[in-house]
Each structure stands twice: as C-alpha cells, then as structure tokens.
Amino acid sequence: MPRGLFHRRIRPESNVVELRRKLSILADAAKYDASCASSGSKRPTPSGGLGNTNGMGICHSFTPDGRCVSLLKILLTNSCSYDCQYCVNRSSSDVPRARFEPSEVVQLTLDFYRRNYIEGLFLSSGVLKSPDHTMEQLVAVARSLREEHRFGGYIHLKAAPGVTRELLELAGVYADRVSVNVELPTSRDLQVLAPEKSMSAVEAAMRNLQEATIERAEEPRAFMPAGQSTQMVVGASAATDSEILLTATRLYDTFRLRRVYYSGYSPIPHADARLPRERAPLLREHRLYQADWLIRHYGFRPEELTDHNLELERDPKLSWALRHREAFPVDLNRAPREQLLRVPGLGVRSVERLLQLRRHRKVRLDDLRRLKAAMTRVLPFVITDERAPPARSLLDSARLAEKPRAEQLNLFEVRASAESGEV
Fold it and tell me: Considering only CA atoms, which of 339, 324, 317 is closest in space to residue 383?
C-alpha cells in the first residue's frame, strides 16, 4: 500500500487500518487469476470525467502493441460458498477472510487512479450467497464508477457460472470486459474438484455474453468492447495439454473469446489428497501460450501440436518441424503464406514482410537478417535465392532434437516473446 494514499480525505484511523487490512488480504487473494489483460478496449474520457483506456500508464498487463497497463486487481471478497478444491479461497479453507463494500472499491479505484498508480480495475469475487447476488455487487461498483464518477478507465468484471442473462448484460454495459472462468478443461475434472460448477453452466454464461454482444453491435454505446476471456488452471488435474488445447480451441470457435489464459496450479494449504503436491512447471504454462498462439495465428490445429503433452525442451513449432522433416526445406521465394508460417523462427510479421518483398525481388539471406529473424532456427529449414541448406542439414537435425542443457529462463526474452507472439 503506497504511503499517503488516504491522506487526502480525513478518515478515522480505525477505518484506514481496516481498509488497509482488507486491501492486503483481497489483493493477495486475487493474484491467482491470470486473465486480467486489458487489450482490445477503446473507451474515451467522458465529458467532465476522468480516465480512459487508451493512454500509457496493481497488476501489470500488456496490450497487443506492447503497452504496459496497470490495473487495481482485487476481490470484492474472498469468502465463498463454493468448495473448489484447487482454490485457496474455497469454503473449507482457513485463510483470513475479508470483504469490501462496493463504495470502498469505488473509492480505492478513484484514489489510486488520481495518483497515477493504475489505469483501470480488475474486480473478481468469491461467490456470496449466489452468483446473482455476487454479480449485483460487482455491477454496483462498475455502475457507480461510470455514472456517478464519470470514470472512463478500463473495467474488467469476473462473473461466476449461473449468473442470469439480465445481470450479464448489465455488466457488459458498464465493463470493458466480462469473463467467466472455465477453470478446468474437462467436465470430468469439474465434477471431481469443483462439484458446484459445471461445463454447461460455464458455457451458458459465455453464450449469453456472446449473444448480447451480437444483439447490441449496432448500439452507439459500446457493449463490452474488450470482449470476453476465460482462464484454465494447468496441472491441478491429470488433464493433458492436448485436452487443454482442444477445450480452448472449442471455446474460441464457439464463443469468439478474445483470450484463454493458462494459470499453473500452485499447491495450497491443507489441499485435497487428489491434488498434486508440487506446482505445475512455469515452462508448461509458457508452452501452452505458445501453442495457443500457433493455433490462433499460424493455422495449426491442436492435434498437430500434441496428442498428449507438449515438449518442455523446445517450443511447439520447432517440435512439429522436427517431426515433419518431409515438409522442409521451404523455398522462401515460392512457398505460400501458410507454409512460411510453419517455418521455425519466422513470425507473422516477418512472413508478411517477406511476401511484400517477393513482389519486387528475390529474397536473400541478408533480408532475413534485416528482418531480425531467429537465424539459428530458420536456416536449417529454408532455401533463399543464393542458399540452400546442406543436404545433411535436416537429416543432421539431431543436434536440434537433442535436449538442450537446462538453463534459467531470461525474463526479458520471455516477456518479449509473450508481447510479440512470434514463435
């Protein structure tokens, strides 16, 4: 909590201490939800109001163009009537509990925004009494910010499965994004670890949001301009990466989700015996994001990438290329776009620039360097105007197939990959 946050308004010391306690508990409890990116929304500053979703900037997320956006990321409450075994806030957990009043969340958001700490709000909650009762509280926060305080910053509301369509539509009027977490990739997993939830209830809520978006597309007031997203917990069950990617692809295709977020399971105190005792590898989470990007932007199908679990030792595109050596080498001057996208080390932007260059002249090795392609990955798989890979190059790709020595991931390289999506 930044010092001086509450100094502008005179408040009883006991109220300040209690608010700090709530914020400490409920901000920490919100850290397990990964689906808080603010990309895709455009909302201007209202007349006489404050805040917008377009500028540069307590959670940091990245937009598709690489901008960093800071969000106040909290729960309305971590008390919950559900007993999802993978969740630290489940009803049977003994964690300290706290609850904000909607007016307190509104004031915190405004205080943080005025001090330039944040550019928006990510608000989730445990299920109080019922999904509808909880959603009414979340909508009250968003309505107050928009209508009473003319707040134009980003707002993301998280809905529980089972919320009525009327409340979901109301949330979409005030929020930039409304999301419903699927949490686990199969109905079987939900029945075992989250019996109060069901895949049918999750998908019903997603369908209601999608239909409302279509019906309101012609209205002058933007309805949920950043669309909807969801999150899956990775490693809490025995579900394979193949099952996870198949579920994600089905949700993308059926409900036009903007993003599926993958959150590696972290062991929690007094966990159910059916849960793993060790956290899911961060690299597994990273590989799922890479595979997700390949499916959405590179034309891959889930079953092409894996029929079980993705390799941790190498990225999914290189792994596919080494299993399909008959598809290589690819002639950069002749191959169609969909074939170029499957070359390891060539991203979507590089392929588009190569296609533009081909209209004027032959692609040469220096062109790849100027495009800053990942040369060590690209060269064994391509033919340029003046160079073909040695006859033994692919047959000798055993050196690429060998498991590399374990090494610490470089934070900045991983972040750059996540921002650009180029794999």
Answer: 339
- On whether residue 295 sits in a domain, the answer given is no
256 and 367 fall within a common domain: no
3 state DSSP class of 145: helix
Is residue 275 domain-shared with residue 323, that is, in the same domain?
A: no
Question: What distance in Å separates the CA atoms of residue 211 and residue 165, rounded to the nearest whole number?
Answer: 10
Q: What's the predicted TM-score (pTM) here?
A: 0.84
Residue 186: CATH number of its domain: 3.20.20.70
Sign of the torsion angle spanned by Cα atoms 176, 69, 106, 113: negative
One domain, residues 91 and 31: yes
List % helix, strand, coil for the chain (3-state, nearest 5).
Answer: 40, 10, 45
Q: What is the pLDDT along the chain (423 residues), one digit of tens a residue?
A: 444 554 445 456 678 888 889 988 998 888 777 655 544 455 555 655 555 544 332 666 655 555 677 889 999 999 999 999 999 999 999 999 999 999 999 999 999 999 989 989 999 999 999 999 999 999 999 999 999 999 999 999 999 999 999 999 999 999 999 999 999 999 999 999 999 999 999 999 999 999 999 999 998 888 999 999 999 999 999 999 999 999 999 999 999 999 999 999 988 888 888 999 999 999 999 999 999 999 999 999 999 999 999 999 999 999 999 999 899 999 999 999 999 999 999 999 999 999 999 999 999 999 999 999 988 889 999 999 888 776 655 555 545 545 555 555 554 444 444 444 444
Tokens of 121: 């709000």
Q: Is residue 361 part of a domain?
A: yes
Asked if residue 241 lies in contact with residue 291, where contact means CB atoms within 8 angstroms, the answer is: yes
Query: Could you tell me if 53 and 194 lie in one domain?
Result: yes
**Residue 185 and residue 61 share a domain:** yes
Is residue 285 domain-resident? no
DSSP 245-274: HHHHHHHHHHH--SEEEEEE----TT--TT
Contact 174, 43 (CB under 8 A): no
Distant-in-sequence, close-in-space partners of 278: CB < 8 Å, separation ≥ 6: 267
**Residue 166 forms part of a structural domain:** yes
Segments forming the whole domain that contains residue 404: 316-420
Distance CA 315, CA 120 (A): 34
Q: Which of 34, 409, 23, 27 is nearest to 230 (CA)?
A: 34
**DSSP assignment letter at 283:** H
Question: Using CA atoms, how far apart are residues 109 and 103, in angstroms rounded to an integer?
Answer: 10
Residues 327 and 273 in one domain: no
Q: Which token pair is 164?
A: 């009525």
